[in-house]
User: Fold these one by one.
Assistant:
Number 1:
Amino acid sequence: MDQIARFAPHALLLAYAAATAAYGVLFSSGSKKASRIASPLLQVAIALHLAYLGWLTWRWAQFPAATVSQALTVVAFAIAIVYLFLEWLGGERATGVWLVGQVLVFQLLAVALHEAQPPKRELFEHPLFGIHVFLALLGYAAFAVAASYGFLFLRLYRELKGTRFSVFYGKLPPLEVLERMMSGALAMGFAALSGALVDGVVWAVQLSDVDWQHDPMILLTFATWALYGGALLLRRLRRWQGRQTAMASLAGLGVIVVSLVAVHTLVVGFHRSF
Amino acid sequence: MASSDNPAGGAPTTADLGPTLLAVGIDHRSAPLELRERVALSREECEGLLLRLMARPEVAEAYVLSTCNRTEVYVRAREQEAALRAALELTFTTRVPEVEHEGRFWVLHDAEAARHLLAVACGLESMVLGEPEILGQVKRSAELAERVGTFGTVIKRLLRSALQAGRRARAETEIGEGAVSLGYSVVELARQIFAGVEGRSCLVLGGGETATMAARSLAEKGVRDLRFAVRGTHRHQALQEEFPGSPITSFQDRYATISECDLLIASTSADEPVVEAGELRQVMRQRRARPLLVVDLGVPRNVAPQVRRLENVFLHDLDSLEHLIARNLERRRLHVPQVETIVGEELRQFDAWYQGLEAEPLIAELQRRAERIRRDEVDGARSRFPAEVQDELDRLTRALVRKILHHPSTRLRAGGAERDLAHLELARDLFQLGEDED
């Protein structure tokens, strides 16, 4: 058991490193061989990761987010599956190095901060809590991915607007594809966050001793949900095009990061007790 | 044919080579367009030249490659000087004597000739570095030579190496990547904006040479919905002949047509801009800001520069296209060393095969001699064996000889490929080959 706990995070790190390398070669040289192996490598890494998270849940009989390391590896997993979905949606692998690279960084942090013995917490044993946390992390991961695509979109947009072409030109997918992938990430994030909110509310009402309606974290999550929902609605109504959506994705991520930091450092509330 | 230390096979030494492979030709480096176009051969003329070359006793094999930028003849000569004279005479002197008088042709021998053909197939010798058409032209010329029957073992193998090098260069490097012509740079820009250009619609303002050249590139890349807006009617017939099915609309209605299109190419002779920012802003509102690529190929410019500021309008003019082409050519140049390495690798393989040919007569003689000994011995002893085992006796002794000679034959071939003359000499001595058996 201890062997698995020690070995598995490193094995995942290697698997994601191999996938990142393949996507990197694909981005820099357009190698057909790299194009053929990149996605299968990522799929293998994701399958291993899923098995590892399943094993952690079974081993400690609680959702694997009780330590910083566990939470980071769940975030890495969430980004990986969001990216895989977008790769399928856009039919493009050229952006993989940027996204799978982020997965690698999160997994690296998870390995660096690894704790052999996570604390036993009753709350984490509740299935609704596990689903809530996973969906929330998936939602935020998808918004982060959307912001990455927003950045790439704006980079290419600026380049195509100008008259000089940098090394990025010709290496990124077309603007329309970047926009489709960004919108896909936003939609996925919004759906996941909606699920997290519904699940969280259902679960919170079962806890009679907490004032969850006034919890800053919950209010912040509702505000984030409403902001992204508004952005998606404007897109749906064709009021917003790619550039506005890209800027909104970047701004949205900035707001999420700043407010999460603020809530966690300045405010004491329901979520602070976890 | 010796391999060279240079990975590209550059400057190979030819001193130790058999004087058999010869290449004679002109290209964009040696002759001006005026001469090249007079020397260029049609497919039928290539066929005739191949047949005339093969009618000469000094020519053993022949291959002709003729494009707008080069006309090259490759021959395997039985007699080098005579074969060179035949190739020059039939290809140039009798048709365009100035080529020979002005010394506009080049002659390459053996490894240099082989290396040249491989480099040509890879696009290294092309006027536009890495251009893709040349590989197909080399292949089609090879098919013609094969059909006419002027291919022999050596040129056939050389062509195989050249085609392999060309395919590898395009698959393993970016020598052919990125648009390097005005027309294709428009397609490349469109591909950076739209997910596929095939289903897109394009309006071309103007019907002159530059406008049709850009339209042709788009049509070649699959843009089916091409529309033209031209002033007057004098270009209508020519446009309808070249682009049948493409509607030609009134120039006055251009903004209405733009609202339905994804690409706008402007190339008119107007002195003032024919696409203004104010009108285009209205059009973009109707389009609900769907992206629009505007390419201004006019001099003076046909599109007001303020158009660049409009949301989701991507305006490019001749300056930015030329910058794009220069950048792509520079990127291709970066891949030249990699392609030269591929040429060197393929040339070495061809070289090894070619050198192995030197051992073949020796191996054949060895096998003939062994077979003669076997037959003599078996014939002498045949009467001592019953009739029903005679066939078995032949089969058994043949198998024995084959097995005994297998390893020496393999080693001799390898010795030939490595230019190990001492090895071949030792074999001659040991098996008494090349001596008068009588």
Number 2:
Amino acid sequence: MNLEILLFSVFALVSAVSAVMTITRKTPVISAIFLILNFFSLAGLYLLLNAQFIAVVQVIVYAGAIMVLFLFVIMLLNSAAESKIFSDNRVIQYFAVFIAVFVFAQLAYLIFFQHPGEVINPQLAESIKAGTIENIGRQLYTEYLIPFEIAGFLLLAATIGAMVIAKKKFE
Amino acid sequence: MMLNSSELMQIIPFLVLGTGIVISLLIEMYSSKSDAILPWLTIALLIYVAVHSINEVGSNDLLFGGMLAVGGKSSIFNFLFAVGGALVSLGAIDYIKKYGANFGEFYVLVQSSILGMMFMSGARDILVVFLGLELMSICFYVLVGINRKKINANEASMKYFLLGAFATGFIVYGVALVFGTAQTMRIGEILVNFSSLSGNILFMTGFILLIVGFAFKIAAFPFHMWVPDVYTGSSTAVTGLMSTGGKAAAFSVLLVLLGAVFTQEIENTFMPLFAGLAVLSMLYGSIVAIAQNNLKRMLAYSSISHAGYMLIGLAAGNLESVTGIMFYLVIYVFMNIGAFGIIAIIEGPNDDRVDLNSYAGLHQKNPVLALFMALFMLALAGLPPLAGFFGKYYVFIAAIESDLTWLAIVGVFSSVISVYFYLRVIVYMYFKESEVDFNVNISPTGLMTVVICGLLLIVYGLFPGSLLGLIASVVN
């Protein structure tokens, strides 16, 4: 058994288990922590697919920024009332089950009947190269230089704006 | 693609303004005299950008692999944005002190929004259009709510942000559909294949969603809901910038997106859409403005109807209409910045003295201000010999040439309605006794803005030929 398959099994197992744990825990904070574990193991799966950039962004944006947002919301909201939503309202429960089955059926159909692997194969070599950080960096600094620089100014303006609106001291 | 230095030389206005933004931020941080330096630095930078842009009108180049155009139409637009920004900054120096938002960041954000507009007018790639639009809009959201102690400004900022985000949603969805069907972001390539793509319903949906998104930004009728509250709630200097620069930037993108329509390479399939938007905007804006007592709110509705007049040009879809729209936009920028400049001078510290009654008897209090206000109102109404007349005239002529005489007639009819509420301001200033007792504190810089705008309107009204010739030479 080579290393790749071993790592894939580990990451896949961790992500599946942590996903189940996320939705079954009673305490929201523990759910959130399992979600972080899920994000990290997904990042590992992306790395195995040679999508380094997406793996890094997954950790920085999802496991970093978005999780902080989640935790803030959990702390600010009264989570005790949350658990009553399901017990009070049966319809939501049925609806949730329906959505879950629907999405699962969609994915299963794609994987087992549409054979997505065959579509990707012809340009496998190029598609592997596309996801590397070097390649994305080169594209950003040559072909997409202008949009990249505008995005920089956009973030600068948004940062200044947030500071002015939230923190500016009045005389 | 390799970057070469000649391309960098051609985007010097962008580089200068971008560097200026960063330097202004540092001055605001470290200098105790930033109050005195920043406004003048901003004005100097923008004047440099304006002069540089107008000098390179003759050139016509696509840079960075076809993403950004310099020279030609975008030069004229960049000139317009820079001059508008400089006039607004000049008028804002004393006004924002009175308004309680004398922050250095104000000028930094004004510069950033102008940079965003310049990228919009130069963009030949939808990605650049979108990023420029967001840069401009985010600066506006913040500028509207820059004084967080004012409830009205907070409300306006929130409304503008939510509806602006809604419009952005339309644009992004449109971009996704257009990119998915055309498989390119380059506007030029999309337009070359337009006739084969136009049969594709997904492509047309995407294109119309793009137009709808920009109709929000130009404040055309069914997408105008944010305009009155946002224009009234935000500080008057910012309203002046938003109502002129923002509208001109959105129109500059529409002129590029529909470029092949104007040269008759593709059929104007959007004519009914634009004609409908134009008729509704003109009539709605003119009729509702009659009922307004607050001058800022009145000008907000008048801005909706002016968007309608310019949309007539898009419906006409020939080269004369491009010239007409661009001429109209130049004149509109000066009319509106001037009118808002006077409102900024009269306005009290607590958002008061913006209603019509405050203008009663202004003639006795300050004849100069009253004279210029009368001038701007007549120009907005489109009476000859002021420049506002020619703005409308060329757009109507373009419509008649495209056999849309009925649209021109509706435009004239709407102008006649609008004369009523513009003249009412003059009647209040000259023929009514003063009701509200206050002293007009003339700010010298504010007056300078007003005088420059007023003189330009008279000059362009008496001699429209030079500006018109310049625009026409660029369009053809």
